Amino acid sequence: MAKNILYKLEVRASRRANTCKRNSNHKIPKGDLWLIVTPPGPAARDYGYCVDCGTTMLEDAQATLEAQLAALRSQNAT
Length: 78
Known about the structure:
- By secondary structure, this protein is of the alpha+beta class.
- It has a single domain, classed as Zinc finger, PARP-type (first zn-finger domain of poly(adp-ribose) polymerase-1, 2-Layer Sandwich), CATH 3.30.1740.10.
- The protein has one helix and five strands.
- It has one helix at residues 51-77; strands at residues 8-13, 18-19, 27-28, 33-38, 47-49.
- The protein has a three-stranded antiparallel sheet. Strands 2-3 form a two-stranded antiparallel ribbon.
- The two termini are 26 Å apart.
């Protein structure tokens, strides 16, 4: 199995009211879905993002991953 280079990601319902870590004006009511990101490391702490910010962040990450993968594949094709 290949090494996983991504952070731990989870989408779950908020157990209490929270604030988005990307934009403090975005409130996450209890029960709403949010994206939880846990960076690697011994002192790993969860960071929560509202649906709008989480979606934007994942779409940006997906575009970056696709571009890097395309670069690797084009090198392999030559």
